Amino acid sequence: MRIDEKFLTEQLKYALDGVDLPFLGRRTRGKVRDLYTVGDKLVMIATDRLSAFDHILGLVPCKGQVLNELALFWFEQTRDIIPNAVLESPDPNVTIARRCTPLLVEVIVRGYITGVTGTSLWQRYSAGEREVYGIQFPNGLRKNDQLPAPIITPTTKAADGAHDALITPSAIVAQGLATAAQWEQVATAALALFARGQEIAARGGLVLVDTKYEFGLLPDGTVALIDEIHTPDSSRFWVAATLEDRRAAEQEPENFDKEFVRLYYAAQGYTGDGAPFPLPPALAVQAAERYIRAYERITRLPFMPAAMPAGARIASTMRRWADAQGE
Prior knowledge:
This protein is of the alpha+beta class.
């Protein structure tokens, strides 16, 4: 199957906004995933919704499948670093995970100074701040410069519609979001995960620039990696081969993530305040192309779109899964 602009444009009509499965119970609609709690399991359905600036901008064809399958790849590649909550994947868009108690902190690891959102390191630095997230930065840094070593810049995990806020590690412990021992384990794991991510991304000619991790506690209190890992939704990936030439020409790096969507919106004057304008269809198709290319570079496997429409397929699969739970 040839996955090109024509194919993805045709898939726009099948883009998955959500899946309502009453037989699984009450649906919780996150920014990108629809969630169901079934006993001690969490059913996570990756939709095609694209979120940026803490808003849903629109739908990107095939995005949910890319996210789910790429996250599963990374979870398998990092099991030796920290446990994760994944149990199985009965459908290309679905992951079944153990229920965890989330730590209400988004753990962002940055290897470069970049970004256009209000919580991005570059936006804070370019506004004149030199101490950000409790870290002191020198004068003279330029956008997209590599940092001497990766750093952790946590934010609070905001409810839907609210903006994430900067927070320091000491405040995380002081506010009871994690114990000192839990935060030490989280921070150590986050840096190790990032190093593994950079190593594997480099094999596909990509630079893992920064990323977001989420952690939770398993029923026995073990700290585990949850949600997703190293996808174009939660990470920035730059093309290594063109990075230095584009920097020398003062151009933005060539990217395989949703940063180019953020840059497009920023160029139109939107940076997160108020309601965003709808995601243009052509931009949605370009986003889909980049997500798929990132998947293929990282996994070294061709992306194989699952049967469409996804909603009907997922409903059928999950009905069988739910029936099997009662056996």
